[in-house]
Design goal:
Layout lengths: L4 E5 L12 H12 L5 E3 L13 E5 L7 E4 L1 H10 L12 H27 L3 H8 L5 H22 L6 H26 L18 H13 L1
Parallel strand pairs: 1-2
Antiparallel strand pairs: 1-3, 3-4
Helix pairs in contact: 1-2, 1-7, 3-5, 3-6, 3-7
């Protein structure tokens, strides 16, 4: 089987750089761990199969048309099911799978909303002008306001929007401190002591799905 043709639609106009979406960067890390080449294009959430980014077009031998797949987790599952990528969690024990799932949940179900609040509520103009840079200014202002209202409503319903700035800072700091404690323990578990030695969040010799998620959140937060 020849290599598939994969295009990631990232939702941002920037090229040759990571974008602000941790899920986009998570997916890019997943493809790199699998040794799969890919291209990037801007795309837009409404054009994706599930109305969000990232999404990909996937073409394999014999395909008459590329298949569109959305959601970073589902894209990973698709690649594994099609034999294009190794199952990173396939050799984990049940306890390790639970740990992996807990790490991903901490990042994707808690820290993600804290980051969204920081960007859209506390740094609105920077976020608007970065995410909507491809739009002319008058349209950018209008679309930005619509996006802001939608994000604010989502955050309030989810609960993060009800926090005070002080509470948000506290919980966000706790989340990163928990992640740092895991990484410190994993580094010591590897036992080499070399600062540039590679290690992974569960302390194993190979990455798991949690590593792709963690990389996405670290890179998008810089």
């Amino acid at each position: 089987m020849s290599s598939p043709t994969i295009t990631i639609f990232r939702g941002f106009p920037v090229t040759k750089a990571y974008v602000w979406s941790p899920f986009v960067t998570k997916l890019e890390a997943r493809l790199r761990f699998a040794g799969l080449n890919y291209k990037t294009e801007q795309g837009a959430p409404p054009k994706g199969p599930r109305g969000k980014i990232p999404y990909i077009s996937l073409s394999k031998d014999g395909d008459t048309a590329p298949e569109m797949v959305s959601d970073s987790a589902m894209i990973s599952e698709k690649l594994v099911d099609d034999g294009l990528a190794e199952d990173l969690n396939g050799k984990l024990t049940p306890v390790e799978k639970a740990q992996d799932a807990a790490i991903r949940a901490l990042l994707e179900e808690k820290l993600y909303f804290y980051q969204i609040y920081e960007r859209w509520e506390q740094n609105y103009y920077t976020m608007r002008d970065g995410a909507l840079a491809a739009l002319p200014l008058p349209i950018r202002i209008l679309v930005g306001q619509l996006g802001y209202r939608k994000v604010s409503s989502t955050l309030y319903g989810q609960g993060t929007g009800r926090l005070t700035p002080e509470e948000l800072t506290k919980y966000k700091t706790e989340a990163w401190e928990n992640v740092n404690a895991l990484l410190t323990a994993s580094s010591r578990k590897r036992g080499t002591g070399a600062e540039d030695d590679m290690f992974f969040v569960l302390g194993g010799s190979k990455p798991t799905e949690a590593d792709t998620t963690l990389f996405g959140f670290v890179a998008s937060g810089l």
